[in-house]
Amino acid sequence: MARLKLFIPLAIFVGLAALLWKGLSLDPTAMPSALKDKAFPAFSLGVLKDEQDFKTEKDFLGEITLVNVWATWCVVCRVEHPYLLELAEQGVRVVGVNYKDQPDAARQWLAELKDPYEFSVMDRDGRLGLDLGVFGAPESYLVDQQGIIRHKHVGVVDDKVWQRDFMPIINELKGK
């Protein structure tokens, strides 16, 4: 019996190693949203282009909208940006949430890289991000015509992600 006690630390180590291995094998972009199939959170924020112009969650109603959380400090957002421009050129409604950023830096960033957003609200203190459950930028949310969040994606949206994750939902929402 005393010899069995010697194996307890080994058993604990093996158990912890198995849990770590399981955690490492998870897809980090597959973070579920507690808001899926719920209304986009209420907010009232100024728009980046005109800080006197305020938008609310009601501005998402009527059209399927890709809401993209971005920031100038986010290196990966720069990688994603050209694809957002393509989506906007294809007629996809893209709305931005400028997350914990400096407005002047964000305006300069959009002037240099072009602006894919119909409008981009300024979430300087991250309250909207907190309500959305944002882990960091970039994150994208697909919001239906009634303002309901249908999908959340953490990380870069590129053509592969768009076709695999977003288009089936959009086609379903459009009744195709």
From TrEMBL:
Keywords: Cytochrome c-type biogenesis, Disulfide bond, Redox-active center. The keyword Glycoprotein does not apply. It is found in: Cell inner membrane. The keyword Nucleus does not apply. GO terms for cellular component: outer membrane-bounded periplasmic space; plasma membrane. InterPro entries: Periplasmic_diS_OxRdtase_DsbE, Redoxin, Thioredoxin-like_sf, Thioredoxin_domain, Thioredoxin_ResA/DsbE_sf. GO terms for biological process: cytochrome complex assembly. Pfam families: Redoxin. One of its GO terms (molecular function) is disulfide oxidoreductase activity. It is a single-pass membrane protein. Residues 34-175 form the Thioredoxin domain. NCBIfam families: dsbE. Belongs to the thioredoxin family. DsbE subfamily. This is Cytochrome c biogenesis protein CcmG/thiol:disulfide interchange protein DsbE.
